[in-house]
Structure formats: C-alpha cells, structure tokens
TrEMBL record, chain A:
Protein name per the record: Dihydrolipoamide acetyltransferase component of pyruvate dehydrogenase complex
Superkingdom, taxonomy of origin: Eukaryota
A Pfam family recorded for this sequence: Biotin_lipoyl
Listed CDD domains: lipoyl_domain
Automatic annotation (TrEMBL), chain B:
Keywords, comma-separated and alphabetical: Chloroplast, Disulfide bond, FAD, Flavoprotein, NAD, Nucleotide-binding, Oxidoreductase, Plastid, Redox-active center, Transit peptide
Family per similarity comment: Belongs to the class-I pyridine nucleotide-disulfide oxidoreductase family.
SUPFAM superfamilies: FAD/NAD(P)-binding domain (SSF51905), FAD/NAD-linked reductases, dimerisation (C-terminal) domain (SSF55424)
Reactions this protein catalyses: N(6)-[(R)-dihydrolipoyl]-L-lysyl-[protein] + NAD(+) = N(6)-[(R)-lipoyl]-L-lysyl-[protein] + NADH + H(+)
Biased composition regions of type Low complexity, renumbered to the chain: 1-16
Domain of life of the native organism: Eukaryota
The name this protein goes by in its record: dihydrolipoyl dehydrogenase
Length: 469, 575
C-alpha cells in the first residue's frame, strides 16, 4: 500500500459530493517495483494488504512500446478496484509474461522491461524460459489428465468419424478454449467428440476430470422438428382421451402440485415391488404415552425406528441412480410425507439415526412450521434417502406408497389396531398391531433385503427401549 | 425551459453558445409557468412572436433562423387539398420506414397534402427487420440470462428451477411485436389521411415521380417537395455467400429459425453485440470476427473496455481481431460453415474457422437503387445520396437539387431510426418556411445488451481532438452504478457513466453510460445537449430517490465547472 499514490489525472475525476459514493473510489495508481540492472522484471504489485494474487485487466502498453517514467503500463484488478500501475523507469516493454485476463501471484513477474532495443531479444528469450518453466508446476496435471482423455475417447473412433473438414486442424469451440485455459488442459492433446470432430466444453471438462455441469438450463425444447412433432401429436392424442363433461372446472396445478405430478410420472420408470409386515405396537404405545409429555411425536418415534433399522440394512438406504450401480448414502435422512395446503411435501429429518428422540421431535416441529410457511430450503425437502408415510391417524389400516425418484424405498404405515392373535401354543390374546408396507426399487433392493429390514424394524418397535437411548 | 427556447431561436450554431439566458427577457414577455406557455398560447393567436410551434421545435432541437408566420391554424385543415397549385401533392415521401413515417406525420400536422410510397412493408427496417424484433429477442435473452444466473438469483433469495425456452415461442414473440408495431404505424398514417401508395418510387425529373411495379401500370405524380427515405439493407462484403440458413444476415437472424451451437458473428458493432447477447443467452457459443484491432469500435474506448469485461469476456465468446472474413461458405455436403480469415492489413491468409453458422453484421448499405437519381443528375457516393446539413440533395456538379431531400440511412449521416425521423421533421419544417439545422450531436444512441450501453455526443478521443483544434479545455468525470441504491437493490451494480465536458463554460460534450437501463437514462443528457443546458444549471435539477437517474445526478454534480449558475433564481411557487 505504501507504493500507492494518487495521480492528479485520475483523482480529478472523483470529487464526489455524497459520502455514500466514497467506496466508489476508482482506479488509483501504484508504482511498479522494479529491480535488476538492464532487463527489469515487472512484478505483480501488492495493491492491498489482503491481496495474494492479481488479475491483469489489460496491458495499457503492448510489447515493443517505449515507456517513460510515470506512465501507466498495466491495469491490475485487486479485490476492490482496478488500479493503473505505472513504471518507475524509462525503457521498452520487451515482453509480456502474463497476458490480459490471466492471474499471477503477488511478486511474480508479469512482464519484462528492457533498457535498450538490443536487449529486447534477450528479454524475450528470458520471457520464453519463464513462461515454459512457470507453468511446469501445472504441467504434470496435464500429463496426468491426457491419458485419461485418451482412455475415455479410445472406444469412440466410430462416433468421431466426422473429422474436421480441414484435416489435421484442431477445432475447439470458444467455451472449450476458455475452459482449457482455465483448467490448464492442452487442447491439442484432446480428441473432439463434437460435430465435425470439434472439441466441446464437455471434452475439456472430461480431460480436466470435472463432472460436466448439468446442461439442463441451456436449452429446453429447442429443436424445431421436435416441437413441431409434439404440437402435431398432442391434439390427436387429446381428441381421443377424455370426453368433455359439461360444467367441469379446470384448476391448473400449483407449483408444488406440478412438482408432485412430475415426480409421480417419473416414478413409473422404476421397477418397484412391495412387502408388508405386521408389527405389534403395545410396547411402542406404552412408550409413546410416557414420552408424549416431553414433546415426542409418533412421527419421531417411527422415523427413529426406521433409521435404526436402516443402519443395519444399508442397502435399503441406498439409491440406484443410473441403473448400473448402487449408491450407498453416507447419512440416513428420513423424509416424512406431509399433506399441506392441497399439496404434499417431504421435510427431511437429517441424520435421524444419530439424533436422539427429543432433538428429532424438536427438529420435526420446526420443519413442519417451516413447511407451512413455505420456507423450507431445498436441502430440507430433497435430501431424503428413505421416506416414511403415515396415514394411521386417519384409521387407514394399510396402503401402498409410490417410491419417490432418487430413493431406494418408502415405508407406508397404517393404523395400530387391537387384533386377536393366536400364539404358537394356541392361546388367544388381543394385541395392538399395525401393518407396514414398504415399496422398494428392485434393481438394488431384493425381497430378502426388505424382509430382513422389516424384521429388524419390527423388533425395534416391539422392544422400543432402544429408541430412547 | 425559458433559456432553452431562447437559445434555439437566437443561435444558429448547434454547439458553441455564450451568454446563456441573457437575451430571453429582452425578446419575449416570458410566461410565468409551464402551463401558461403550453396551452393558452396554442389556443389563441399567432400574433405573439412566441408561439406553440416554436415550443415544438425546441423539442426536436431544430434551430429556426427566421420566425415566419405561424402555421398553427393549418393543423385544422388535415391532409386536404395541396396548398400550392399545379401539384398532386405538397410532399411525397419515398419509403415508409420510421424516417418517412415521422416526416409524414409532421407534414400533415403542418397542413401539407402528403403521400408516402412503399414498395415493401410499412415500417421499413426498424420495425420489420431491425430495432423492433431485436428488442423482443433481447427481452427474452435478458430474462434467460437472469434466470440462468443462479448466483444472482440466490443473492436475491430466489430459487428458480432450470430455466428453458421454446425457440418457436421466442420467434413468435419477435414476429408478433413487429406486426403490432407495423399496424400501429400504418393506422396512425391512415388516420391522418396520408396517402399510402404501393410500389417502387422512381424520380422522373424535378418534382415529378412515378410509382408502381415498374411496368406500364405505373402512375406518374407530381409533388412540390420530395423526400427520399429508402433506408438501407444489410451489407454483405464480397466473398461471403449468404444462404439464409447457415450464413445469415440480421434479416434472417431476427426470425430465429435456429439457434446454432456455435455461431461466428462478423462485426462487433451494435448489431453484432446485440446478437451475441441473444445467442449466448439461448445457449450458443459465439466467435467474433472484427476487422479493426479491437472489439466494439465506435464506442468510447473506456466504455468499450468495461463493456468487454462484462459482455464478452465472461461469456462463451472468443474473438479474432484485425482480420477480414475473406470467404464464407455455407454448410453443405456434410461440411460445416467455413470461414477464411485474412489479415486486415497485409491481406495474408491467417486462419480458417469451422462453425455451425455465421451472422454477417458488418454494417448496412444504403438502398438507393432504382430511385431514378440519374434523371436529376445525382451520383451516389458508395450508394449514399449526398446531402448538405439541411438534408438537401446535392447533384453531380455540387449544386443543390431544388425540392429534393434525403433523410435517414440513405444519406448515411447517422444510421439510426430516430435520427431519420428527426431529419424528416427538420425537412418538413424547412419546406413549410422555417429554416432548421438538426444538431446530430444531440442524438442519442443505444445498444441493448444486458446491461445496456448508451451514448450521446462525442467520445473522449473525439472531444480531445476537437479541443486541441479549437483550443479549449476538456474534463472527464465518472460515476459508478456501484454507488447507486436502486442498482444495488437490483443487484446490478456493474456499470459506469462518463461525462465529457468543458470546464470553462460547463458545456456537455458527450455522455456515455454502461449499466442497467442505460438506454433510458441517456435522455437526460441528450436533452440537455439539445437544449443547450449547461452543467452548472442541470446539477441543481432534482432526481427522485432512489432511482437509477441518480447516477446522472451524481455525474453532473461531480463535474467541476468554473462558472456559476446562469439562470436567475425562479420566483418561489407556493406548494
């Protein structure tokens, strides 16, 4: 900061009348610290005490320009503002080491200043040496990623048959080039998979080992042919589908209802099956009476029980994302379906296996309040790994739930009812029983898995002391 | 207000003025309030030297030299019989674009029997293939950009699911807007009784022309005065083959028949920039090809640099500067669009590009063929019709052609729709007996990117050059949108406004704005230039808080002018 000085030419433009405009303080001027005798290095200046690296906004001068003392040479962007940086010495800007738009750490050489024209060549050679040695730290990264790229691309020569129209020429799209520069990927080593063999942003991302950002927001139904086809097809479909009933009232979906509708249709692509299990709840009911005054709800009890069972059966807590693999979730997040203002939402009790009953109940209360106020954050309703749906309070004895996309299983809980049971000795007794019914994705969860899980769940419910621990 | 009117009437020079306001009280009994001068005068007489029509003049920045008889009463006549004997019409305008439309409306108001000849569709380039449909596309791109910017949305506390678009829907929006504006334009002329004559207009001789399909069915008409307002068409340099599908001009692009994955835009002026905004928002990648050494030529360099950092660098855009596209071949036979680049100076081959589409935005060429200019000995210069500062057409011998004017893109003075309209109004003023010269330096221009760029007057280098020649001092001051409450509330603090002025007398030489709604903000500055308002006066004008207009408020207040306020303290008005 000590090197900063305000030149008159710049500060004359800033006589602000209002204090509010103070932080607007525009480009001020810093003098370049320069050393060495004949060929001087121009360093990235430290423009503030917190600055660790700076970005070259633009070189005011270009290579070969004659500089005189006090002239602005380069504009550097710090965390706050752009600064004109000027030189202390006369000379010739021999070489630019760090180009416009690139960043360099504070103190790193960004350009070379020669005293006379004879030294320009020498300076240039030096700059070349510097630029080849400087990114050498990054070079291994490129080496590493290159084989990955070839490996990925190797099986695709059939697809990449459409070679560039100009043979031997590397064609990369503007964004691909930008990404390559950013991630230091050598674009010449990539094999393009785009049309006409061009290198696409995805190719660069793959080479850099980054999962490509979801492209969903770029183009929705764009292809004219596709949209024409759908518009032509849909009226025909509509004509045969539903007869109009006079006096009917069409109410469009709310956003939440649209989301539910979308999810439900999506769920049809998952092969599911269901397993039911009767669970005796006398002990649970007794426990519930005991902990109810402490604010514990039945939802919390059931969620906790499910979570504890899931700990022992991680596959039921898993997800099948691509139809090829199991994704084992590291935490057990129990989503609980709640009917709300004509909609349905699933607030999530995160890490339900780790929280105790009381915390869980408290958390649940908060979530429900937030849901009513429509203030749930996305991770509070879409991070579930297992869903619980309870219609028992309405007297429903059993029902069947639809598996939400992205989860492995959902549990539908019916009402607990006094039921006559005969034990193995033939003695009759009346016990409270509830029917739970689990729907699961059969691609990853098989019948035996579910049965074992339900058995564990039933044991926990029948001996609920562990829930309070 | 008072001083502005006195200025425009007393001084023939559009720029340099002195003694602001000193003559006003001597010349006219000044009305006390706006209401007084606006309404009462128009309702009554033409005896008072200060009449309603001169108010109107000031609005269009036309500077009359002599004040002849007022024609206010003529308005009542409508588009009736030609006032001068022997002619079919008082005024015939060739071309029903925005320029011709503006002229026609004003001519009817002035009591002229007016006809307008249009060989294509009413509205011309602006309405059908230019400003209007492009604004529809830019409205879409602006919203897309905002919705896609998750960071921006989150910082406002908003959550938006992935935004998408339907290409046909966007294209329809642009098309519907154009038809709507076109019918508005047609109706406004029909309602006033302007005769719309269909066909190509050709000048046969002095005050005589024909119109029609160019066959024997053509009709010949005579007119006291003729205005050429035939506009322009996209300029396609030689070597470029336009097929309308993969190699296109703005005419095709505005129909948005496809959104290519990768499009090269030849030319980085207004048109190219606006299309880069549209295409990148809709998911395309863009490559600029610019013949000059830097992108965005024509803009104030400082504004251009900042705009580049916001509009180009962070987007999916790369560029080639200092190169010509010497040959562009459309995609065919399974090959992509191929562009051959040569060095703009050495003409040596530099590179070839392969892209999905190419948009030619290298400028516009005047549309003056078939006008029959040879019949009156007029030679076009690079297609433009030569005119003097009063839009009077100059013939091959350097003499003025009587009763013939040319406005808008066809004369090439300032290729902007609103400039054409202002020129048209200026001409109508002249033919109705008032001499006027339009101050082109007061005409604002805007580029509707996100954020927008706008400007009026001189750029800084232009101002410095002029200052050196004429020996005056130039100062520059800047304000940032970052300090503006409204801009920050919108989370759009990116941008700056720049004022170039004379510190010795407070004259505004140029204003350049880059930032949210810049195109709307520029008019405070352009009106000030048009009215001759000085900084020392305008800095006391009040701006509503919090609004974006305070960016300009701060700008004027930050200027350091060496003279004090020129207008006297107004009489207090009880509130």
């Amino acid at each position: 900061m000590a090197s900063l000085s305000f030149s008159s030419s710049v500060s004359s433009s800033t006589p602000f009348l209002r204090p509010s405009a103070f932080f607007l303080k525009p480009r001020s001027v810093s003098r370049l610290p320069l050393v060495r005798a004949k060929i001087r290095e121009i360093f990235m200046p430290a423009l503030s005490s917190t600055m660790t690296e700076g970005k070259i906004v633009s070189w005011v001068k270009s290579e070969g320009d004659v500089l005189s003392k006090g002239e602005p040479v380069v504009v550097v962007e710090s965390d706050k503002a752009d600064m004109d940086v000027e030189t202390f010495y006369d000379g010739i800007l021999a070489a630019i080491v760090v180009n416009d738009g690139e960043t360099a750490p504070v103190g790193a050489p960004i350009g070379l200043l020669a005293e006379t024209e004879d030294e320009i060549a020498e300076a240039k050679a030096k700059a070349a040496a510097q630029s080849s040695s400087a990114p050498s730290a990054a070079a291994p990264k490129v080496e590493e990623s290159a084989p990955v790229a070839t490996k990925v691309e190797a099986p695709a020569p059939a697809v990449a048959a459409a070679a560039p129209a100009t043979p031997g020429k590397v064609v990369a799209t503007p964004f691909a080039k930008k990404l390559a520069k950013q991630h230091k990927v050598d674009i010449n080593k990539l094999v393009g998979t785009g049309p006409f063999g061009r290198i696409t942003p995805e190719d660069v991302e793959k080479a850099a080992g980054i999962t490509p950002a979801p492209k969903a927001n770029v183009v929705a139904p764009a292809a004219p042919a596709a949209s024409a086809a759908t518009s032509a097809a849909s009226p025909a479909k509509a004509a045969t589908s539903f007869p109009e009933i006079p006096g009917s009232n069409v109410v469009p979906f709310t956003t939440m209802q649209s989301a539910v509708s979308k999810n439900m249709v999506e769920s049809l692509s998952v092969p599911t099956f269901r397993v039911g299990y009767p669970v005796s709840t006398d002990a649970l009911d007794a426990l519930y009476e005991k902990v109810k005054p402490k604010g514990v709800t039945m939802t919390a009890l059931l969620a906790k029980a499910a979570a504890m069972a899931l700990v022992q059966h991680p596959v039921v807590n898993a997800t099948c994302k691509d139809g090829k693999s199991f994704t084992y979730n590291s935490s057990i997040n129990i989503a609980v379906a709640v009917a709300i203002n004509g909609g349905l939402i699933t607030p999530v009790l995160q890490d339900a296996d780790k929280l105790d009953l009381y915390l869980l109940s408290q958390k649940w209360k908060e979530l429900v309040e937030k849901a009513r106020a429509k203030q749930l954050q996305p991770q509070e309703y879409n991070s579930g790994t297992f869903t619980l749906s309870n219609l028992g309070m309405f007297g429903v004895d059993r029902f069947d739930a639809i598996l939400p996309p992205g989860q492995g299983a959902i549990m539908a809980v019916g009402a607990s009812k006094p039921t006559v049971v005969a034990d193995k000795d033939g003695f009759f007794s009346v016990k409270n029983k509830m029917l739970v019914n689990v729907t699961a994705d059969h691609r990853i969860i098989y019948g035996a898995d579910l049965a074992a899980f339900l058995q564990t769940f039933s044991k926990i419910i029948e001996n609920p002391e562990s829930l309070t621990m | 207000m008072q001083s502005a009117i006195s200025l425009s009437l007393s001084s023939p020079s559009p720029i340099a003025r002195s003694g602001v306001g000193s003559t006003s009280n001597a010349c006219w009994p000044m009305p006390r309030s706006l209401r007084f001068c606006g309404l009462r005068r128009e309702a009554f007489d033409s005896a008072a030297s200060f009449d309603a029509s001169s108010l109107r003049l000031a609005r269009f920045n036309l500077q009359p030299k002599q004040s002849t008889l007022s024609k206010v009463s003529a308005v009542l006549k409508g588009n009736g019989a030609p006032s001068s004997s022997g002619f079919d019409y008082d005024l015939v305008i060739i071309g029903a674009g925005v320029g011709g439309h503006g002229a026609a409306l004003h001519a009817v108001e002035k009591g002229l029997k007016t006809a307008i000849i249009e060989g294509d569709v009413v509205g011309g380039t602006c309405v059908n293939r230019g400003c209007v449909p492009s604004k529809a596309l830019l409205a879409v791109s602006g919203r897309m950009r905002e919705l896609q910017n998750e960071h921006h949305m989150n910082s406002l506390g908003l959550q938006v699911a992935a935004a998408g678009y339907n290409r046909q829907g966007v294209a329809d929006h642009a098309n519907n807007l154009a038809s709507k504006i076109r019918s508005n334009l047609t109706n406004s002329m029909k309602a006033l009784g302007v005769d719309i004559l269909t066909g190509v207009g050709t000048i046969l001789g002095p005050q005589k022309l024909k119109y029609g399909k160019g066959d024997s069915g053509d009709k010949t008409i005579t007119a006291k005065d003729i205005i050429i307002a035939t506009g322009s068409v996209p300029l396609v340099p030689k070597g470029i083959e336009v097929d309308g599908k993969t190699v296109i001009t703005s005419d095709h692009a505005l129909k948005l028949e496809s959104v290519p994955d990768w499009i090269a835009i030849v030319g980085s002026g207004y048109i190219g920039l606006e299309f880069s905004d549209v295409y990148t928002a809709l998911g395309s990648e863009v490559t600029f090809i610019e013949a000059l050494d830097q992108l965005m030529p024509g803009f104030d360099p400082e504004i251009g640099k900042l705009a580049q950092r916001v509009l180009i660098n962070p987007r999916k855009i790369d560029s080639y500067t200092g190169v010509f596209a010497s040959k562009i071949t459309p995609a065919k036979d399974g090959k992509p669009v191929q562009i051959e680049l040569i060095d703009a100076k050495t003409k040596e081959p530099k590179d070839t590009l392969e892209v999905d589409a190419a948009l030619i935005a290298t400028g516009r060429a005047p549309f003056t063929k078939g006008l029959g200019l040879e019949n009156i000995n007029v030679q076009t210069q690079r297609g433009f019709v030569p005119v003097d500062e009063r839009m009077r057409v100059i013939d091959a011998n350097g003499k003025l052609v009587p009763h013939l004017y040319c406005i808008g893109d066809a004369n090439g003075k300032m290729m902007l729709a609103h400039a054409a309209s202002a020129q048209g109004i200026s001409v109508v003023e002249q033919v109705t007996g008032k001499d006027h010269v339009l101050n082109h330096l007061s005409i604002p221009a805007a580029c509707f990117t996100h954020p927008e760029i706008s400007m009026v007057g001189l750029t800084e280098p232009q101002a410095r050059e002029k200052a050196q020649k004429e020996g005056f001092e130039v100062s520059v001051t800047k304000t940032s949108f970052k300090a503006n409450t409204k801009a920050l509330a919108e989370n759009e603090g990116e941008g700056m406004a720049k004022l170039i002025y004379r510190p010795d007398n407070g004259e505004i030489l140029g204003v350049h704005i880059f930032g949210l709604h810049a195109a709307d903000l520029i008019h405070e500055a352009s009106n000030a230039i048009a009215m001759g308002t000085r900084i020392q006066d305008i800095k006391f004008a009040v701006h509503a808080h919090p609004t974006l207009s305070e960016v300009l408020d701060e700008l004027f207040k930050s200027a350091k002018v060496k003279v004090s306020t020129s207008s006297a303290v107004a009489e207090p008005v009880p509130v």
